[in-house]
Amino acid sequence: MRYIVMVPSVLLIMLLAYFGLQAYTHAKGYEESTKKLVVDKNAKSQAEYRARSLAEKLSLGYFENEKRVFRETIEKERAWHKKRTRASMTYAMATLAVILLSSFAAGLQYFTFFGSLSALVVLYLGLFTPILMITIRTEVEYIGEVILSFESKSVLGSVAKLFDSGDAAIAFTILLFSVLVPLTKTFLMMFAAAVAESRFAHGMVKFFKVIGKWSMLDVFVVATLLVYLTGNGSDVSHAEVQAGIYFFLAYVIVSMLTSLSADKMLQRSVNSE
Q1: How far is CA 228 from CA 149, 150, 158, 225, 231, in A?
Q2: pLDDT digits (tens, 9 = 90+) for 145-188
Q3: Pairing of strands 144-153, 237-241
Q4: How far apart are CA 144 and CA 165, in angstroms?
């Protein structure tokens, strides 16, 4: 049964990566579309938009407001990318669930290996895909809503920004616990699954007892709140959660499950000797 599960699991992980990359591509497309709209909503451009709208009304439609057409096109583009991002995310999470269920049916060793491999995929996507989009806007008399600033952040992008702003200690903490430790932990769990029946298993039991109790959830929440608060400290700001945050959360959950699986797998291997 294990060999029957192996090939489909590899194919499913490739499918997970495909849907994940689709979600990343459309999330970046949504980000780029939003940037175009933001550039067209500064004070000068908004004043021009109002003047063109007035001219369009006075000419009874003879004069077409090109900016209105441009914005409507961009809004449709944004809506399409947002819809495709959600669809790709749904397919990716469904594929991830199938991988976990099928590998669990084959035993702890397979669950640990393929669960860790899946965790590696969603972690990679979670680090690079935008997790938060922040716009700061205000209402200006006569010309309407004006966007003052826009920023879209990923985990690695937030770390880079903190380093650039001089907050090296905070940046390194997030880099360590949200990037380096998860990567090391995931690779070690894959290695543990590969050597579960060897003499190395004895030396890894204590290690997995420690990380099996460790949850990335608290670090994830702190990192998310930090990113959120850096741009959401004003009444005129608007924060929109993006696909990356769901990939990262998926990694947290899968990592916790595979840690417990690795601990039980190694304990059984040691006890059987």
Answers
A1: 15, 13, 10, 5, 6
A2: 777 778 888 888 888 887 888 878 878 877 887 788 888 888 88
A3: unpaired
A4: 33
Distance (Å, whole) CA 236 – CA 35: 18
Take residue 3 and report the two structure tokens written for it.
């060999």
| CA–CA dist 163, 180 (Å, integer) | 16
Tallying the residues shown for the chain, one arrives at 273
Cα-only R_g, the chain: 24
CA dist list (Å): 179 to 124, 159, 265: 9, 10, 25
Q: The pTM is what?
A: 0.84
